[in-house]
Specification:
By secondary structure, the protein is an all-alpha fold. Helices cover about 80% and strands about 0% of the residues. It is built from 14 helices and no strands. Helix 3 (about 45-65) runs antiparallel to helix 4, helix 8 (about 140-170) runs antiparallel to helix 10 (about 185-205) and helix 10 (about 185-205) runs antiparallel to helix 11.
Length: about 280
């Protein structure tokens, strides 16, 4: 009976948090979200908003997966940490240029660039995954908040750094292809890489706090699969899956969306295998 009541309370809180998330997103767009989606029929905004809400849902699953401490504490903790997740997802918009090179006003609102929207969607999902990992663990006191913020920050920095390294793996200017040339194939592949990075970092920052040295060391160790992005792209995607046909040419010259989908799927699938093997 208590469990059923708790689930009902958490679901109601989730709806309230989603409403708060929508209000915050309206502040970012500087216009009404409903009008942007239904009156202006902006597909890029629809994809971006969907990614934002998906990131919020993922973040909330992490909060909901925390150890139970009783009905009242669970309800209060879910509300507090859930709100933190919504706020951090909101703030991640301002770091989007560092992660995916996407500028919200230019690419989403003005240019309605679907490729840029896919990249922003993936960055929201990655941020939600990082939060879902960082929020798990024992306790709900001040230390729980400190560890959450520290590991979220560490995860976001690793996300941004790995995204920059991914740019170096391509023989074309990734951000120019997505933002200026509107190359959807490049956007799909990059979006898949961002989600894969988020999956790895979710595992890296998760777990109970065991001291700063041990826990931060664990983050670095469990982040090592991120170094496999280049061999996965060169050997698995370009070689095994595409028969060494030239992935960069397929993406930048032929704009082969199918090749981008294959690339994205490979990154996500192998990231799931890596974290499962390391569990």
């Amino acid at each position: 009976m208590e469990r059923a009541l708790l689930v009902s309370v958490l679901l109601v809180e989730s709806l309230v948090l989603l409403f708060v998330a929508k209000l915050l997103w309206g502040l970012v767009l500087r216009r009404n979200v409903d009008q942007e989606l239904t009156t202006h029929d902006n597909p890029a905004a629809a994809i971006t908003v969907s990614g934002y809400f998906l990131g919020v849902f993922i973040a909330l699953t992490g909060v909901m997966g925390s150890p139970s401490q009783g009905l009242l504490k669970d309800a209060l903790g879910f509300g507090a940490f859930g709100l933190a997740g919504v706020v951090l997802l909101f703030l991640s918009v301002f770091g989007a240029p560092l992660v995916g090179g996407v500028k919200l006003r230019r690419d989403i609102v003005e240019n309605r660039n679907v490729g840029s929207a896919l990249v922003l969607l993936a960055s929201f999902v990655a941020t939600g995954l990082i939060f879902a990992g960082a929020v798990r663990g024992e306790g709900a006191g001040p230390m729980a908040w400190v560890t959450l913020l520290v590991f979220q920050l560490v995860g976001q920095v690793l996300l941004a750094l790995t995204a920059q390294l991914f740019k170096l793996m391509t023989r074309f200017k990734l951000h120019d292809e997505i933002a200026q040339a509107r190359n959807t194939a490049a956007a799909v592949g990059f979006a898949g890489a961002l989600v894969a990075i988020g999956i790895v970092l979710n595992r890296a920052v998760a777990g109970s706090f065991a001291g700063w040295t041990t826990s931060l060391g664990g983050v670095l160790i469990y982040s090592l699969p991120l170094l496999l992005l280049w061999p996965v792209r060169a050997l698995v995607v370009n070689g095994l899956l595409l028969g060494f046909k030239g992935l960069d040419r397929e993406i930048a010259v032929d704009r082969n969306v199918g090749a981008g989908v294959v690339e994205a799927s490979a990154y996500i699938g192998l990231a799931l295998l890596a974290v499962t093997a390391a569990h």
